[in-house]
Amino acid sequence: MSLLRRLLPFSLIGAALSAMPLRASVALFMEDPYGHLGSWSPTGHAAIYLDHVCADNPTHLRRCQPGETGVVISRYHKVHHDDWLAMPLIPYLYSVDDVKDAPVSLRNRDEEMAVREKYWRAHLTDLVPPDENGNAPKGNWTQLVGSLFDRTAHVFEIASTPEQDDHFIAEFNAGANKSHFNFFLHNCADFSRAVLNIYFPHAIHRNYVADFGLTTPKQVAKCLVKYGQKHPDTPVRQYILVQTGGGIARSHRIRGVSESLLKVKKWFIPLLIVEPEVIGVSAIAYVTTGRYKFDHDAPPYLPEQTSIPATASAP
What we know:
By secondary structure, the chain is an alpha+beta fold. The chain has one domain. Helices cover 36% and strands 15% of the residues. The protein is built from twelve helices and eleven strands. The chain has helices at residues 3-7, 14-17, 35-40, 89-94, 109-124, 147-150, 162-174, 188-199, 217-230, 257-263, 265-274, 276-290, and strands at residues 26-31, 45-50, 53-57, 60-63, 71-74, 85-88, 105-106, 153-158, 237-241, 245-246, 300-301. The strands form three sheets. Strands 6-5-2-1-8-9-11 form a seven-stranded mixed sheet. Strands 3-4 form a two-stranded antiparallel ribbon. Strands 7-10 form a two-stranded parallel sheet. Strand 3 (53-57) and strand 4 form a beta hairpin.
């Protein structure tokens, strides 16, 4: 059962859209950038949600049992020295075990961290040991849980088969899971590209023109949408998981590389003055191969802090 159908019971607007026939079991999360770093580097984050793949622990995959909702898997920088980590869906989105406990809003970063730390103490201290004072350490482990606290996620779902899931599980469990993160060659989008190419060979590729060879989440989404257009039997369905409300700053709009150089003032103005040729090249690259409009009318989904029916079993 797809992520959308799992979220419908607690969606604020699910009743109006519950008839939508979404049955995908593999989804790209194209996640907005946020914070100070995101304002400089608005390429965002990419992760893959697998609704029929679960995990005994964050580094060992298996098929889901009835009642389980799958995992979100991605590459992270300096977290437990692993190349990839898999987190259950609801903790990844809201840093809670049960969606009925998902916060509808968060007033500030302290409140956000309190929710994350509660989950960390219950589940993640072996993966992420406490600091010398016994508190949750600083670091990128916070990206493992409560993703929607910081940013909105644009979701692209596509159907898969049990055979594809089994092949993926076998390949990833057999491989060496050692971190070799590199922003330019082995980033989170490269990881998502690799995963999707296991399911759909040669579907996802870099854009050597518009992104100057860097793999970006937006490029992965663009390739996946085009793959769905070329294969009508496996269409890609789009929707949006909205950032948790409250006083935390909203995430930024996600962009590609040449698009960032043209549309982010922090880059455009200095480059226009110092290296106008770069702006010219970026403009040509963006206009020729970088422009792509996603479904901006894709339906949004929000958590509702009420009791919900039991999650449907995974077949």
